[in-house]
Amino acid sequence: MYQDLLEILKDPERVSVNETVLEHHSGGMDYHERKKPDVVVFPKTEEEVVAIVKYAATNKVAVVPFGAGSSLEGHLLPLNRGISMDFTLMNEVVAVYPEDFLVKVQPGVTRMQLNKHLKKYGLFFPIDPGADATIGGMAATNASGTNAVKYGTMKHNVLGLQAVMADGSVVAAGGQTVKSSAGYNLTELLIGSEGTLGIFTELTLKLAGIPEATVVAKAAFESVEEAGKAAELVLQSGVDIGKMELVDAATIQAVNEFKGTDFEEVPTLFLEYNGTAEATEQGIAVIKELMEDAGTVKFEFEHDSLKRAQLWEARHQAALAILGKKPGCKLVATDVCLPISQLAVTIAHTRQLLDEYKLDGAILGHVGDGNFHVAFGLDTDDRDEMERFHEFNGKMVKFAIDHRGTCTGEHGVGIGKMKFLKEERSTALPVMRMIKKALDPQNILNPGKIVEMEEVHS
Amino acid sequence: MYQDLLEILKDPERVSVNETVLEHHSGGMDYHERKKPDVVVFPKTEEEVVAIVKYAATNKVAVVPFGAGSSLEGHLLPLNRGISMDFTLMNEVVAVYPEDFLVKVQPGVTRMQLNKHLKKYGLFFPIDPGADATIGGMAATNASGTNAVKYGTMKHNVLGLQAVMADGSVVAAGGQTVKSSAGYNLTELLIGSEGTLGIFTELTLKLAGIPEATVVAKAAFESVEEAGKAAELVLQSGVDIGKMELVDAATIQAVNEFKGTDFEEVPTLFLEYNGTAEATEQGIAVIKELMEDAGTVKFEFEHDSLKRAQLWEARHQAALAILGKKPGCKLVATDVCLPISQLAVTIAHTRQLLDEYKLDGAILGHVGDGNFHVAFGLDTDDRDEMERFHEFNGKMVKFAIDHRGTCTGEHGVGIGKMKFLKEERSTALPVMRMIKKALDPQNILNPGKIVEMEEVHS
Prior knowledge:
The structure is a homodimer of 458-residue chains.
Chain A: H1 2-9, E1 15-16, H2 19-24, E2 39-41, H3 46-59, E3 63-66, E4 83-86, E5 93-97, E6 102-105, H4 111-118, E7 123-124, H5 135-140, H6 148-151, H7 154-157, E8 158-165, E9 170-174, H8 186-190, E10 198-206, E11 208-209, E12 213-220, H9 224-237, E13 243-247, H10 249-259, E14 268-275, H11 277-293, E15 298-302, H12 305-316, H13 318-325, E16 330-333, E17 336-337, H14 343-356, E18 362-366, E19 371-378, H15 383-402, H16 418-424, H17 429-439
Parallel strand pairs in A: 2-4, 3-4
Antiparallel strand pairs in A: 1-2, 5-6, 6-10, 7-11, 8-9, 8-10, 12-14, 12-15, 13-14, 13-18, 16-19, 17-19, 18-19
Helix pairs in contact in A: 1-3, 9-11, 9-14, 10-13, 14-15
């Protein structure tokens, strides 16, 4: 396989069987057992991706697309070995259309790289998962983040894309308009398909203007449930909230230790409003009132821009902070999403479950859209701890599904959520399988993820 | 077939071969040649839909779902005769979840019926195509309307749905959360699939709060191109515009005649801002400034709520007004959508084409999202007029596609846009065909629309 791929790429630097490289591509930032691919390739062009996929199709070899490696549910595991396709070198911003609020990028561009590039236009791409993920990876999992409450998720912000399908054909889906009713929505079928239906080679993204003003505030509460209730109030008020993040005491404690910050260690809503200067002033005043109605014990503005940045950076790095508390352990982050009215009760139930299973988990999440996580640092070799985690996770997800929620709001299915998907989408799974079979009959594209197929080639 | 269906529905009132009923179900509100189905059924429950589809699958009979009959591109034509399935009797609002901003409806509910129902909750469903279409039909074409610039299209506002597939199985896709990464996005694959992949039996919709305040204004321009440029300015400013509709002189003239209004007969942008009272006052002030920068010859607020309602009603009925000008003629409404920066040039080109082809068309559209229409009343028996129309339409759509646009922003493909879809989505069409073949191997669901299949059963 190595020789064949070398003949395709004609560059020994971009076809690797080096142990360190294989190890780096043996999974994501998750707790699943790692497995090495046979070989890692680093394509630079769509033509190269096509040639590699055609080779894989002819030889029934699995291909797993790989971006920043920040998957949390096992998406990057080469379950059948084969080829890990690393997009690090396809990281060009292809074209910016500032007057159309659009940008065309290669899949290996990371969100931070993109926003650095866009700054001079006064524009930014709002989707912000915790990691500095690649746009391709973010599209593959329909990622979101703290800005989703205002700007939506990847599927709301990818207008078009090109993908290499399992037979090596290149498909252009969607386009550059904010609306279209031109045929089946292949763009959104591919977004969230986790590399199992096609491999992205180009994406057209909708951009937003960098807001004129931003105000940040913190509201402390006596319990996580009260904070959850306060979040519901904000959403029901219809105020155009920019971000609304819930962090519980344990998370703040971990962040303080990890980042040397001095945030008060109580359940807190981190809030942001952005827009024109005038709208922002009004917006945050409404939010302050709502927090007081909801019984906040302390409401504070964060006017200082450095402190403001520090606050959101701390939130973004909360997962790493949790991990930092338990050296040698692996990050485990759960993910459920609920209708607004079911959020507080689910958070309360989750806290009970954590106590019941004696797990040291931190609750944090994007409560602006009903989505929350529990983050752990777990010793994957400690069978007892892992068993307790799995039981906890199963019960938490079941509670969420029973309360009209979904088993994953933004992390995706990978292998970690497959059993819950069966429960949540029992009638949809056969249709997903029919689509997978029609578009990838040999099951070579990221096999073993989302849907189980009858036979898995290797 | 009649007897078999009567045995299924057990109600002679709901299985019809009456000539008037067949005629009513022989097409939409469009110019395509009509064709009668063999029979029209009026199911009341999902179980009945399942039984009818199973009957159709066993007997290889085509099924065409039918809502309000307001299709503009031939979606409702029973090309292979068979069954027209009318959803008029499945028009129940199943459940309202006001605290979650959600409603669950049957597909036959119309948008006006729904909003009347929701008023007491202070909520509304913002998608507003011109006609009082059914929610099922709106989902089938990924419809939108004047509110799309602020609230998005159907695909942004349908969170979950149930559909009966070609084999009679019932699939639940999506759910009740605003975010989910749980497997392939079947919801959005089915939205815009025009009844060719599955038949909706239930839809869960995202609602919005009725805004506290609304301000409406009109800005007159010397030319359509200047009005288009002004619309671009608003979008680029980032102001949270509620509606922005362009109507040209010919349209206003037709509306005045039809509705007895006295709008000035010049190219005009109809603008709306809504939100809190304070935000609205600021918002409309920003818009006024932008209009002046863009060279408006007259800017007027419409403070009077009656006049305001009249204004939007006039806009909504513009298509009917155009038709009213030519009695006995059929409504023909074109539909393209462009990236913002290409809007003005395309509108200017379209006006030239109209002159060139000596067609009396009115330009109107949702320029807030790059989408515009040309409406005609055409005598479909006048071969010369129809030929000129088709040539005009082909050139307009080609210009739009060449300027990074799409052949349909909201009307859908039906049969009227199939040849343009081939041009716009040449690489995507084979994949659409693979999906259609996998999910409807006998091609019984609304055959002959969107994608041509090898063989069409009857």
